[in-house]
Specification:
The protein has 214 residues and is mainly β. The protein folds into 2 domains: 109 residues, TolA/TonB C-terminal domain (2-Layer Sandwich), CATH 3.30.2420; 88 residues, OB fold (Dihydrolipoamide Acetyltransferase, E2P), CATH 2.40.50.320. 13% of the residues lie in helices and 42% in strands. Strands 1, 8, 9, 11, 12 and 14 form a 6-stranded antiparallel β-sheet that branches.
Length: 214
């Protein structure tokens, strides 16, 4: 039997595994995560909604577009799908998409919607926009050992974030069902780092769907 833990680092990582190659460019690059609001095939633009704001990106012949199955064409991207865009600034401050990676499934977008954060201004952001505030995600492959688990449902943890971006406290709103596992999750969550002076509180879901014996 195998245990499938759904973690923030795993889920968010699905959207941009190839972005490292794009960052080799000498031009400053920026990454945006959000939900596709509109695609204009004639103008060759894509608009993302992220953190309650809309961002327009221009697509060139050099823009790399992909999904979970590899290369994807622009006409396959639909409003409501999740997407991550690596962009650079062009002339007059126009956003030029260097790379676009989108997730055509509703499942991932629905799960990402469970991630949320409260900014220092009191604004609530959720979904892929959450990752705009993440500076460091700790490795997740060694945080659980030595426990026998039974089938349980998803859980939710809340993090209190200091002004410097470190995590002051983490606690389960709905636990994983095992005190030992909750404690390990809290220890792992406290290693996260966020942009300084950006968010005060973060909520992250966890879940596992099968059984594994260590």
């Amino acid at each position: 039997m195998h245990l499938r833990i759904i973690l923030a680092a795993v889920v968010l990582g699905l959207l941009a595994p190839d972005f490292a190659s794009a960052k080799d460019s000498s031009a400053p690059l920026h990454t945006f995560y959000g939900i596709v609001k509109a695609v204009d095939l004639a103008a060759r633009t894509i608009t993302l909604k992220s953190g309650g704001k809309s961002f327009l990106f221009h697509i060139t012949n050099e823009t790399k577009i992909s999904g979970r199955q590899g290369y994807a064409s622009l006409d396959k991207i639909q409003p409501g799908q999740g997407a991550a865009v690596v962009m650079r600034l062009g002339e007059r401050g126009v956003g030029i998409a260097v790379m676009i990676r989108f997730d055509p499934t509703a499942g991932t977008s629905n799960y990402l919607a469970l991630y949320s954060a409260r900014t220092i201004h009191g604004e609530m952001i959720s979904g892929m926009a959450f990752n705009n505030y993440v500076v460091y995600e700790p490795p997740s492959d060694a945080w659980m050992t030595g426990i026998t688990y039974e089938l349980k449902h998803a859980s939710m943890f809340v993090l209190s974030v200091r002004p410097d971006g470190t995590v002051a406290d983490a606690r389960p709103i709905q636990g994983l069902g095992y005190p030992e596992l909750d404690a390990r999750a809290v220890k792992w969550l406290k290693k996260w780092r966020f942009r300084p002076n950006s968010v005060t509180e973060v909520r992250m879901p966890f879940g596992y769907t099968q059984t594994r014996h260590y």
